[in-house]
Design goal:
The strands form eight sheets. A five-stranded mixed sheet has the order 2-1-3-4-5, with helices on both faces. It has a four-stranded mixed sheet with strand order 14-18-19-20. The chain has a three-stranded antiparallel sheet with strand order 15-16-17. Among the domains are: 150 residues, Resolvase, N-terminal catalytic domain (Rossmann fold, 3-Layer(aba) Sandwich); 146 residues, Putative Large Serine Recombinase, Chain B, Domain 2 (Hect, E3 ligase catalytic domain fold), CATH 3.90.1750.20; 52 residues; 60 residues, Orthogonal Bundle (Multidrug-efflux Transporter Regulator, Chain: A, Domain 2), CATH 1.10.1660. The radius of gyration is 47 Å and the shape is elongated. With 690 residues, it is of the alpha+beta class. It has 24 helices and 22 strands. A hairpin with a 4-residue loop joins strand 19 and strand 20. Helix 9 packs across helix 10. The relative contact order is 0.05.
């Protein structure tokens, strides 16, 4: 149909719809001429004879590729289905649709209601085969054109990215310079906080621990205040996503990575929907250029960080888990020697319970018998002793290194505080200049600038106070003495300030893995320790029987108690054990009551006569054997005729059975008619003359 042909009167009584669309928001803002020419289609519709004209411009800034919802196009389709549209006016076919599905669906609806399609070239009737063919070709060309444009632009971007020249968005800490190209951010405070994150991760080995430590040190992280330009920053409290984004980004290791994410396409309610930003593994990136620019860390350190972060992920297979505290030293580090699974930690008994390493995955998942299980207290103590024995030759070097690390941390904290103070002073100076440049009579603006200046001055005072507090040592807090670490490693390991998380980190720094098995014949837990560096050692720990607890008194203390029991009192035994540095099974000091209780439990008698083996007798047993009274035996003992022993004065007499058969005892008991008095060789007569 030519442009001069008149339209039917029935169509002119319907509404004419002018569809206006531009693909992106940038085109809406900058390509104003294209939008103006599309709005001129209203005059074209009026010239064709339409009195009722509707303009649909809801889809400005929306793509017509079929992956973005277009409410304006859906409204046009609804009007066509209702038979209210007589003609659809568009600048060209690409404005209506850039995909065949939407284009042909629109043509089908126009053909059903006999609506016309009008563009700058003419008027088309979809009911006629020639016009339908021409419209189909225009739609195909529009779709093909979009593919060509997209392919051409993507190929150019990939070609430039392979050379590392494509200016992709860079993370915080980098910036694109107009002349120099890619480089570190000129803000030293931004550089310092990025380096501090990597330094803390080397020390802590966990992203969350880095967050907690930096939060405790009141370290702030920059947030762009100017969008994608990233020239001006606002400093806020550091968050976990800040830490993890820095640790996982290869850009900080000097690597140029392009194509790190992918798009995914899904069919939602009959429409194609594409989602972007799905991260891909680093080895699947389209372009990965190492040593492309100056990095904050080396590539080898970046790979170690990724391996450690992957091992720290809860529930992931492979690698020892990070130390998260608790009461078990080897949680996530010990492996079953029978099935190869990690031994989980369970807590038995009343809360808080005692740690138990138990391989019960086969039982829970497959219904098979449990592989093994054993208490954790003895195992942890044995491994701790092995760790201290391995560290002991390097104790002095470790103490010096700890002192150096302490000084470096203090220096870093002071450096961060100085940079924060410097920026606060600049912001206060800037606020002062803005206030000075404002007209004092304009109170609406001057009042707000005055408040901003006062807030900046308060920030300066807070930074100065923080810097002074960090510089002046607290007199109530003693400086850590690292030289004592080399003298007594056991005391340092069991110090109250040392947490289980710290002990777990030390264990993971020295031990790669521990394979555990149980030797039922000898009732021992066999631990094969794989040390960092390739060395291996085996350790056997006694596995207690059912009902046997670990708070038992040592055999050395029991031997001393047995040797002293028949000759010394419980008080003397307790004092001797305390002087020798021995403790009870619960780690307490000895008292006479505890010695007495332990003697009764182990059957250690305090007197020889209590053995009842016939060698030693009590006074009553001696009197019964000789057929006399206890008084007679006591007189013999006091007279020195019968030998007897006492542990302490006032204690029961202990009489040897063989001493009852001596001649002196027999002669004293043979005298009749007179009291049984003993004759003393040095006794003088009261009447020497008679």
């Amino acid at each position: 149909m030519s442009a001069s042909d008149a339209l039917p009167v029935a169509l002119l009584e319907r509404k004419a719809v002018v569809y206006i669309r531009q693909s992106t928001q940038a085109q809406v803002q900058t390509h104003t001429e294209s939008r103006r020419r599309q709005y001129e289609l209203v005059d074209v519709a009026r010239a064709r004879g339409f009195r009722q004209i509707e303009v649909i411009d809801d889809d400005l800034g929306r793509s017509a590729s079929g992956t973005v919802a277009r409410p304006g196009f859906e409204r046009l389709v609804a009007w066509l289905c209702a038979g209210e549209v007589g003609a659809v006016l568009c600048f060209d076919a690409s404005r209506l649709a850039r995909n065949g599905r939407d284009w042909h669906h629109l043509l089908e609806l126009c053909g059903l209601v006999e609506a016309r399609v009008i563009d700058m070239d003419g008027v088309y009737d979809p009911c006629r085969p020639n016009d339908r063919l021409l419209l189909g070709m225009k739609g195909s060309i529009s779709e093909f054109e979009l593919g060509v444009l997209r392919s051409r632009m993507l190929d150019a971007a990939r070609s430039k990215a392979r050379r590392g020249e494509l200016r992709i968005p860079v993370p915080i800490g980098y910036s694109w310079h107009r002349e120099a190209g890619l480089g570190l951010d000129p803000d030293l405070r931004v550089q310092e906080v990025i380096r501090l994150i990597f330094a803390r991760f080397r020390e802590c080995g966990s992203a969350r621990q880095v967050l907690l430590r930096m939060s405790a040190e009141r370290v702030h992280f920059p947030r762009p205040s100017d969008g994608k330009r990233m020239i001006a920053f606002e400093w806020h409290t550091i968050r976990y996503r800040n830490v993890i984004s820095v640790l996982k980004n290869p850009f900080y290791a000097g690597a140029y990575a392009y194509g790190k994410s992918e798009k995914r396409t899904a069919l939602v309610e009959g429409h194609v929907r594409k989602s972007y930003g799905h991260q891909k593994p680093l080895e699947q990136c389209e372009v990965l250029l190492k040593d492309h620019h100056e990095g904050y860390i080396e590539w080898a350190e970046f790979e170690r960080n990724q391996a450690l972060l992957a091992a720290n992920t809860y529930g992931q297979a492979g690698g020892a888990k990070s130390g998260r505290g608790g009461r078990a030293l080897l949680a996530g580090l010990i492996t079953c020697g029978r099935c190869g699974r990690r031994l989980p930690v369970v807590y038995a008994g009343k809360p808080p319970g005692r740690p138990v390493y138990r391989c019960d995955r086969p039982y829970l998942m497959l219904g098979l018998p449990r592989c093994l299980g054993f208490g954790g207290s003895r195992i942890d103590a044995a491994i701790a002793a092995e760790l201290l024995r391995a560290v002991e030759p390097m104790a002095i070097e470790a103490a010096l290194q700890a002192a150096r690390m302490h000084m470096e941390i203090r220096t870093e904290q002071r450096r961060i505080a100085e940079l924060e103070l410097q920026q606060a002073k600049y912001e206060a100076s800037l606020a002062e200049r803005r206030y000075a440049a404002c007209d004092p009579d304009n109170r609406l603006i001057a009042a707000q600038l005055e408040k901003s200046w006062e807030a900046a001055l308060r920030r300066v005072q807070a930074c100065e106070a923080r810097l002074e507090h960090g510089t002046m040592p607290d007199p109530t807090t003693a400086a850590p003495d690292f030289s004592g670490l080399a003298d007594d490693l056991h005391a340092a390991w069991n110090a109250p300030g040392v947490t289980m998380r710290t002990r777990q980190r030390l264990a993971r720094a020295m031990i790669a893995d521990i394979i555990a098995d149980v030797d039922e014949a000898t009732r021992e837990v066999v631990l094969t320790i794989h040390w960092r560096g390739g060395q291996h050692s085996q350790l056997r720990v006694h596995k207690p029987k059912t009902g046997e607890h670990g708070c038992s008194t040592s055999e050395e203390a029991l031997a001393i108690m047995r040797s002293m029991a028949t000759r010394w009192s419980d008080e003397d035994i307790a004092a001797s054990l305390n002087r020798m540095g021995m403790r009870t099974g619960q780690g307490k000091t000895w008292t006479a009551h505890r010695v007495s209780s332990l003697r009764r439990v182990h059957g250690i008698h305090g007197y020889r006569s209590a053995e009842k083996n016939g060698e030693w007798l009590t006074m009553s047993e001696a009197a019964a054997k000789l057929g006399v009274t206890n008084h007679a035996i006591r007189r013999l003992i006091k007279g020195g005729i019968l030998a007897a022993e006492q542990v302490v004065p006032g204690a029961p007499y202990q009489i040897r059975a063989t001493d009852l058969q001596s001649d002196g005892v027999s002669a004293a008991l043979a005298r009749k008619g007179s009291p049984c008095r003993a004759g003393f060789a040095n006794q003088m007569s009261m009447f020497p003359g008679t």
